[in-house]
Amino acid sequence: MKHDYQERKQNRITRALELARKKEQESDQLYDHANKMASVIPMGQPILVGHHSEKRDRRFRGRIHNTFGKAFKSAEQAEYYREKAQIIESNDAISSDDPEAISKLEDKLARLSAHHAFMKAANKCVRKHDMAAFLQLDGASEELWKELHDENGNPVGFPHYRLPYAKAEMKRIETRIALLKRYDGQENEETEKGGVRILRNVVANRVQIFFPSKPDEETRTRLKKAGFRWCRRESAWQRQLSSWAEWQAKDFLPAG
C-alpha cells in the first residue's frame, strides 16, 4: 500500500532471506544426520541377500537415501529464496503502490519519448547517408553508426518494429499516469449493503470488501477468481484499485 510501500518491500526481502537461512540450516542438519546414519555401515558392505537382516538393512539404507534427498531439496529451496530476495531488491518495475509512482512513470515516459525521437532522427540520417548529422544527435556515436549498417555498409537503421513498439509503450505509460492521477487526491468512498461494506481506499490504492463474518467457501472462491485476496492486517478482501475492481466488488453486495 502506498503509505508503507518501502516497508512492505523490505519485509518481503527480509522474509525471503529468513526462509533461505532456515532451509539452509535444515539442509545442513539433514545432511549431517544422513552421514551419521551411513557411517554405521562398513565401507563397501553389501546387502546380505537371504540373511535375516536383509529387509532391515534395505529399509535403513532407504532412509539414508531419503534423508540425503531431503537435504538436497532443502538446499535447492534455500537457493530459491536467496534468488527471490535478490529479484525483489533489484526489481525496478514501477508499482502503482509506490507513492512516487507518478513521478517515476513521468521520468520513464520522458526517456522513452527522447529515445523514440532519437530512433526516428537516426533512421532519417541513415537513409540519407548523413553521418555528420547523425553524430550531432544526443547519444550518437561512430560505433552505433556502424551497427545501423550491414557488413557491406548498406543502411539498415533501427528495426522497423522498434518505433511502433516504443510508441505503444509510451501510450501504455501515459494511460497509467492518467489513471493514477485520476485517483490521486480523491477521497475514500464507501458503500454498504446488508452488512457488506465496500471501500474505495485511495490512500492504500485498494478496493476493499469487508464482510460481517467469514464468507462461505463458494464466496471465497468467487473472490479469488475476481482477483481479491484476504489481507489479515486490513481484515478485508482486497485488490488493486481500478474501475474494473470497483465494478467487480459490487457483485458481492447482497441482492435485494
General description of the model:
This protein is an alpha+beta fold and about 260 residues long. It is about 60% helix and about 10% strand. Strands 1-2-3-5-4 form a 5-stranded antiparallel β-sheet, with helices on one face. Strand 1 (about 190-195) and strand 2 (about 195-200) form a beta hairpin. The two termini are about 35 Å apart. The mean pLDDT is about 90.
Total strand segments: 5
Give me the Rg, rounded: 30 Å
Structural class: alpha+beta
In DSSP terms (H or I, runs of 4 or more residues), the helix count works out at: 8
Main attributes of the structure:
9% strand; 256 residues; 5-stranded antiparallel β-sheet; flat; alpha+beta
What layout of secondary structure does this protein have?
Elements: H1 5-39, H2 54-90, H3 101-127, H4 131-135, H5 142-147, H6 162-183, E1 189-193, E2 196-201, E3 206-210, H7 217-225, E4 229-231, E5 236-240, H8 243-249
Antiparallel strand pairs: 1-2, 2-3, 3-5, 4-5
Helix pairs in contact: 1-2, 3-6
In short:
By secondary structure, this protein is α+β, with helices and mostly antiparallel strands.
